Amino acid sequence: MNRLKLLQDLVDQNKYENFLEIGSHKGKTLLPLRCKFKTAVDPAFRISPSFFLKHLYQNPDNLRNRYFMMTSDQFFDQKKSYLKKKGNMHLIFIDGLHTFEASLNDVLNSLYWLDPKGAIVLHDCFPPSEAAATPATSLKEAAGMNIPDWSGTWCGDVWKTIAYLKKRYGEALNINVVNADMGLGIVRLNNNQNKIDKDLDRGLFSKINAMSYVDLQKNPQSLINLCEFHEVPGV
Ligand SMILES: C[S@@+](CC[C@H](N)C(=O)[O-])C[C@H]1O[C@@H](n2cnc3c(N)ncnc32)[C@H](O)[C@@H]1O
């Protein structure tokens, strides 16, 4: 299992048509994914012309893609009329800035535009090492921190977003993290009801922000609902 396969399975099983990706980089997930309407957001796309052309030939859906070169905060703030026109998003893949605060913001903003039967998938929810889980404000900052055992892989503390969502919205949201591809978080609405209070619980945020990778390793099942793909209900 990897992120592309998981996303494609969700599209195929649920006949999803409207996909949004936060953080598309080289287009390695965006372009091969087969879905009718795809929207991509990234302040620094790195899609090469040859990679684009190859995937346009293999997957003509890519002709309809829309690209927004901006941060996710700018996108959700400035592109409301685009989002309204596009209609509910069925599948939103969050793989932008790998901090607790940014990824939580991305989920809360995404929930607003999510179809009641849709799903949010977050990458990097179960980092493979303490080095990969280092909290930092960017990959560049993490890479410059002289972290022992640094391999270049950076998941940051996105896992805290899952821990926060689980504590704050345990009833309203259905949350799992598939133990594959550095942790693939799946967030769906329980009872298809998109009526959750999106105000930040600052006390809970601070409590979870103070947690460490050691806490995550001690009990990933209870903290982030870590499971195998076949254990995810309804997928
Ligand atoms: C790990 S890469 C994404 C990989 C891609 N999703 C894939 O599967 O191939 C992370 C991307 O997030 C982008 N990014 C960083 N900060 C962001 C932000 N605030 N909003 C949206 N994207 C951001 C970076 O420019 C980078 O291209």
From TrEMBL:
- Know the name of this protein? Class I SAM-dependent methyltransferase
The molecular function GO annotations come to:
methyltransferase activity
Has keyword Metal-binding? no
GO process terms (BP) = methylation
Family matches, as Gene3D superfamilies: Vaccinia Virus protein VP39 (3.40.50.150)
Which Pfam family name is an example for this entry?
Methyltransf_24
The domain of life is Bacteria
Keyword Methyltransferase set for record: yes
Its keywords, alphabetically, are: Methyltransferase, Transferase
